Automatic annotation (TrEMBL):
Keyword annotations of the record: RNA-binding
Keyword rRNA-binding recorded: no
PROSITE patterns in the cross-refs: CRM
Single GO MF descriptor: RNA binding
Signal peptide per UniProt: none
Source organism of the structure: Lachnospira pectinoschiza
Protein name: RNA-binding protein
Keyword hit for Acyltransferase: no
Record domain CRM: where: 1-97
InterPro entries: RNA-binding_CRM, RNA-binding_domain, RNA-binding_YhbY, YhbY-like_sf
Taxonomic superkingdom: Bacteria
Length: 104
């Protein structure tokens, strides 16, 4: 699913009010982290991750890798905070604004 700018803006607004539920430190990204993030995305749809100062990896690179491995969308990366979204199959909580139909 490709997000529109309107949908991305809507999710950014929702993300302002949530706290990070994962942190990446010196171990950076591990298979266990990825599995836990995938599980959290299925339950919550929208999550925030904090990259600690002792993590040597770039937050944008981490966000891209996590999104690819969890089949989610990177909503935004600001400083050391990453926001991810993935529509849940079972626990649909967030109703995104509809994308406009393209003119024919």
């Amino acid at each position: 699913m490709i997000m529109t700018s309107k949908q991305r803006a809507y999710l950014k607004g929702l993300a302002m009010n949530i706290d990070p539920i994962f942190q990446f430190g010196k171990n950076s990204l591990t298979p266990e982290n990825t599995a836990a993030i995938a599980e959290a995305l299925e339950k919550r749809e929208l999550i925030k991750i904090h990259v600690l100062q002792n993590c040597a990896d770039d937050p944008k690179a981490i966000a891209a890798i996590v999104a690819e491995r969890t089949r989610s969308e990177v909503v935004q990366v600001i400083g050391k905070k990453i926001v991810l979204y993935k529509e849940s199959k079972d626990h649909k909580k967030i109703e995104l604004p509809k994308a406009r139909k393209e003119a024919k």
